[in-house]
Structure formats: structure tokens, C-alpha cells
Specification:
Blueprint: H1 19-27, H2 57-69, H3 73-85, H4 89-92, H5 97-100, E1 110-113, E2 128-131, H6 134-145, H7 173-186, H8 196-209, H9 214-224, H10 229-236, H11 238-250, H12 263-272
Antiparallel strand pairs: 1-2
Helix pairs in contact: 2-3, 3-6, 3-8, 9-10
Length: 273
């Protein structure tokens, strides 16, 4: 029978168990137990992901409000379209207003796109169909109402160097990267912001919205062209958190805590006794 370790006998009566304090005390060595390093220790590591999804809805709303308040309507449109379409930046930057809007100035329900990266990599060629939701309609409409002279054939995200000229050229991916990093810095978001943050945010919130439904994971795997579901989870940024939590809670062989030690369990045992 599994034995549950009792910690309450070491603590004052009617005091809640502070597991974090226990972990901190366990991790701190006594002075003199180990000597300082005498040489530099290096180990080879794989490259870390350079971008993370924006997981907080509050942060998403803060970003949009910040861009609109500063009259950066193009950047707000880029942000909203990016996190709602889940396209690679190579495809996102090439979108034109005609992809989303019909000749009669009515927004389409959806449109087809042949993703650039998959044109030469997938054996079976097929289009990806993008549904246009309300958030995208609102962001595009806000941009158009504040930007005169826009044509249906224009790129949605024109380079700012083209403003006031007859050139119709899309924003460079480096500019998108600079915009994302600037947003993270200005709002002190605390996560790694880069071009892929837009696509990863789309995927992360798709999973959250579905309550981590395995079918949604398979859909995202197919949508992103990943070889495995694990690759998709890693891309989204969920796997790292789950692995860290798994390591932290296990503690097999510990004298003070393991994954069976739970304040709720101990409370029940104390009540039963």
C-alpha cells in the first residue's frame, strides 16, 4: 500500500503547510558543504526558441489598445490578423485587401491561400482556407477608416517607407520582427517576442479554447504541416511548461516531499484521524 508522508507533525498545529518554503529550505545548502568552482564549466546546448506565444488575454487587449491609442492602425491590423489567421509571416506579409474584401466592398466569409513554404515541400498540393472573423473585420475597418487612398489591390501591410508614394510593396519580415520586439519592450510583457509570436499565439489560444481537445491538436498539426503532434505542442510552447511541472512534482526518494504529498490529501488524513 502506498504510504503518504505526514508533514503536519513537524509543524505547529492549525498552520497551513507552505510547500514552497519547504522546497526552498531543501534547495539551500549549508555553508561549506561544497567549494566554489575553480574552472569554467561549459556544456553544449541546442538553440532555444526565439519566440513565445502571448498567453494572456489581458496582454493581447493591452497590445491592441496601445497600438490604437498611438494611431498605429497598420500595426494593430497586422497584430490582430496575425494572431487570428495563424499564417507564417512569409504569407501574412503578402496578403492584399482583395483577399479579404470583395469588389462590392463586402468582407468575404473566407478565402483560399497556397502557403509559400508548402508549395515545394508537400507532395500533394492543396490550399489552406482562412475564415475571416469579427476581430479581423474590426481591425481592417479601423485601418481603412483612418487611411485614405487605399485600393483593393494594395498589400495590407505596406512598408512605411512607401507611405505617400505610388509603390505597393509589402512590409519586410525584419520590420515585423522589430515591431513585435518593440511592443514587448514598450509594454514590458516579459516574454520573447518575434515574428513567430503571432502564429504561436493563434495556436496556443486554439488549444486553450478547445480545453486541450486532442482533435484540435491534430487539426493544428495538419494546419501547420508538422510531422508529429509533439512537434506542434513544442511549437506552441505548452510542452516546456508541462515537462517542468512533471520534474518539479515527482521527487522520488525525497524524505520531505514527493508527488503523493499534497496538502489536500494530508488535510483529509488529518480529519479522518
Amino acid at each position: 500500500m502506498t504510504q503518504i508522508i505526514r508533514l503536519d507533525k513537524y509543524l505547529p498545529k492549525e498552520q497551513p503547510i507552505d510547500m514552497e518554503a519547504i522546497r526552498t529550505n531543501v534547495r539551500k545548502l549549508k555553508a561549506g558543504v561544497i567549494a566554489p568552482a575553480v574552472e569554467e564549466v561549459e556544456c553544449e546546448l541546442a538553440a532555444e526558441h526565439t519566440s513565445e506565444p502571448i498567453k494572456s488575454m489581458e496582454d493581447i487587449n493591452r497590445i491592441s489598445k496601445y497600438l490604437i491609442d498611438n494611431k498605429r492602425y497598420r500595426d494593430n491590423m497586422l497584430f490582430i490578423v496575425g494572431i487570428n489567421f495563424g499564417l507564417r509571416v512569409s504569407d501574412l506579409r503578402l496578403l492584399r485587401f482583395s483577399h479579404l474584401i470583395n469588389d462590392d466592398c463586402v468582407f468575404k466569409d473566407s478565402f483560399a491561400i497556397w502557403e509559400k513554404k508548402t508549395q515545394n515541400t508537400r507532395k500533394h498540393k492543396h490550399n489552406r482556407y482562412i475564415t475571416i472573423n469579427t476581430a479581423v473585420v474590426e481591425a481592417v475597418t479601423l485601418y481603412l477608416e483612418n487611411t485614405p487612398g487605399v485600393k483593393l489591390s494594395d498589400y495590407m501591410f505596406r512598408s512605411e517607407s512607401n507611405n505617400g508614394s505610388d509603390k505597393n510593396e509589402p512590409i519586410h519580415r525584419n520590420s515585423i520582427d522589430r515591431i513585435m520586439k518593440g511592443i514587448g519592450r514598450d509594454l514590458d510583457l516579459g516574454n520573447k517576442m518575434a515574428t513567430h509570436s503571432l502564429r504561436k499565439t493563434f495556436a496556443y489560444h486554439q488549444m486553450v479554447m478547445s480545453n486541450n481537445d486532442p482533435r484540435k491538436l491534430l487539426l493544428l498539426q495538419k494546419m501547420f504541416g508538422h510531422s508529429t503532434a509533439a512537434q506542434t505542442l513544442d511549437y506552441i510552447g505548452i510542452t516546456g511548461e508541462e515537462i517542468e511541472e512533471a520534474y518539479r512534482k515527482l521527487n522520488l526518494g525525497s524524505r520531505t516531499c514527493n508527488y503523493l504529498v499534497d496538502s489536500t490529501l494530508m488535510e483529509r488524513e488529518s480529519t479522518a484521524s
